Amino acid sequence: MAMAAAKWRKGLLGLAALFLFVTNVAGLQAEELDWRAIRDALAQVETGGNPNVVGRAGERGAWQIHPNVSHRTDWTAARRILEERLDWFRRRSGRTPDAFDVYALWNAPGQYSQNHFRPEGLSKVVQDRCERFRNLYGAMKKSSPRDGRAVARSEATARDRKG
Fold first, then answer.
1. 60 has which bridge partners?
2. Of 82, 84, 97, nearest to 24 (Cα)?
3. Using one digit for the tens of pLDDT, what is the confidence trace for 22-49?
4. Model's pTM, two decimal places?
5. 86-98: string of b/e by CB count within 10 Å (b at 16+)?
6. Which residues in the chain land under pLDDT 70?
7. Taken in order 105, 100, 73, 125, is the CA torsion positive or negative?
8. pLDDT reported for residue 3
9. Hey, is 66 helix, strand or coil?
10. CA 57 vs CA 64, 65, 66, 67, 155: distances in Å
11. CA–CA separation, 15 vs 66, rounded Å?
C-alpha cells in the first residue's frame, strides 16, 4: 500500500513539474508581463524616448536596436527581439523573467547568459541600468493606460514631439 502511494505521489509530482515547464515555455506565468510598461520603460532607459538617437556602436531608435540584430527600429521589431530572448531565457534558466531579467536580456544577453543569469555577473553599469528599468517598469505598470494622468502625459508628449 505504501509503495502504491509513493508511486502515485511521484507520478503526481512529475505531472506537476511537466505542467510548470509547459506553462513557463508557453509564457503562461502567474503574472504576465505588461508590454506597454516594458515599451515605455525600455525607451526611457535607452534614450529618454528619443527615436532619433544613434548609439556609439550604431544602435538606432528609441530602443537602440543594433543594425546587426534588425534593420527595423520600431517597437514591433524591439518586441519581437525581446520575446525571442525571453523565450530563450525561460528554456535555459527554467525561470519566469522579472523586470531585472528583461532589461539584462535586452542590454547584455551574452554577458547575462555566460554568468548563468546571475545579476552579480553583470557589470556595475548594466546592473544599475537594470535597477533603473525595474523601477520605471514598476511605476509604469501601476499607471493603467486608462489612468487619466498616464493618457494626459502621453498626449502631451505626442504634442511636444509634433512641434
1. 54, 65
2. 97
3. 444 444 344 588 999 999 999 999 999 9
4. 0.69
5. beebbeeeeebbe
6. 1-31, 144-163
7. negative
8. 59
9. coil
10. 10, 10, 7, 9, 32
11. 42
